[in-house]
Design goal:
The protein is α/β, with parallel strands linked by helices and 340 residues long. The chain has ten helices and 13 strands.
């Protein structure tokens, strides 16, 4: 299989409460779901009909078996998912939408986790080179041997060697509990940026990658580092994307938030779909924004990822243009600066 999207990195079991609006100590029942940002992104893109796969590791335990089952259920290729030492991690979350609080509690990740045990020598570099989109996250750089594996994967896919229509995306996903300092993370990000064509992050994540500044200043620094599309999430003001010749902003798509987690992963999978569909950048952003909003209005992450019909229906309801209405989804991307 040649993947339209191949991701690498974190996977876990998300343990989410069925009781909404209370602290974890008061929850009486939970549900379990596939989790982990790169894995969620692969699921999200698969819901849009894309051929996706994940490079990761689980524990050799029942939770690891559950994650394989879930990946297959969502039609995500799990042939690069192997067991590694340690137990499959679990992530607990309290869901308190009234206060806009969704605190995460990571179990089984310290001092390390199976998905941080990916070895460079285990990688299928040909599959990584041939994927239309290769997606990694900053979290995957936080410790060895995962760090070296991520660097090897990117070095096998140099920016100058990409074919028209191929993209290498770095999710700037900075989580401070996995790092000794922001400076350490910035050093590791600098090793990856020369291979990246698209970078996505919020203002804090962009600040860790390229320094404090306005969203435009941060986007310009990412572009100066060689990135071709810089996406900066603006919180309540929406999201901005910038190339060397274009700047577009997509306003938020308001919904009643149930669980704010997973919205960014839904955004990522939909963004990949839009890129591969060849839509104008403004339409890619609107579509991804709407996909993220839908997941924010639902309880889970992976299970909540929307279908294209759900996304286009929401856009139409909110009076937004429906992207790709006259485009051939198999066409090469037309985003200026992303085609070599």
């Amino acid at each position: 299989m040649t993947h339209e999207l191949l991701t690498i990195g974190r996977i876990s079991v998300d343990i989410y409460p069925n009781d909404i609006g209370v602290d974890l100590e008061d929850v009486t029942s939970f549900g379990k779901y596939l989790g982990g940002s790169p894995s969620n992104v692969a699921v999200a893109a698969a819901r849009h009909g894309r051929r996706t796969g994940v490079i990761t590791r689980t524990g050799d335990d029942p939770f690891g078996s559950f994650l394989h089952q879930e990946l297959r259920k969502f039609k995500v290729d799990d042939s690069f998912v192997f067991p590694a030492p340690g137990q499959t991690p679990a992530t607990f979350c309290a869901i308190k939408p009234a206060t806009d609080e969704f605190p995460l509690y990571f179990y089984g990740r310290f001092p390390t986790a199976p998905d941080l045990q990916i070895e460079a020598g285990e990688l299928d570099l040909e599959a990584i080179r041939e994927a239309d989109v290769f997606w990694s996250t900053v979290t995957g750089l936080c410790q060895e041997p995962s760090r070296s594996a991520h660097i090897a994967a990117h070095e096998a896919r140099p920016r100058t060697g990409l074919k028209p229509g191929q993209f290498t995306i770095l999710d700037l996903d900075y989580r401070p509990m996995f790092w000794t300092s922001e400076d350490e993370a910035r050093v590791e990000v600098a090793k990856i940026l020369p291979h990246v064509t698209v970078a996505i992050g919020n203002d804090k994540e962009c600040a860790v990658a390229v320094g404090e500044g306005t969203p435009d200043e941060q986007a310009d620094r990412l572009l100066a580092a060689g990135v071709e599309i810089a996406v900066v999430k603006l919180g309540p003001e929406g999201v901005m994307a910038k190339t060397r010749t274009e700047r577009v902003v997509s306003a938020p798509v308001p919904v009643e938030t149930v669980n704010g987690l997973g919205a960014g992963d839904s955004f990522g999978g939909a963004f990949v779909h839009g890129l591969l569909s060849g839509w104008p950048l403004s339409e890619v952003l609107d579509y991804a924004n709407a996909a993220g909003a839908i997941v924010a209005s639902r309880l889970s992450c992976a299970d909540a990822m929307p279908t294209p019909d759900e996304v286009t229906s929401l856009l139409a309801e909110r009076g937004r243009p429906v992207p790709g209405a006259s485009a051939n989804v198999a066409a090469a991307p037309v985003i200026e600066g992303a085609v070599r």
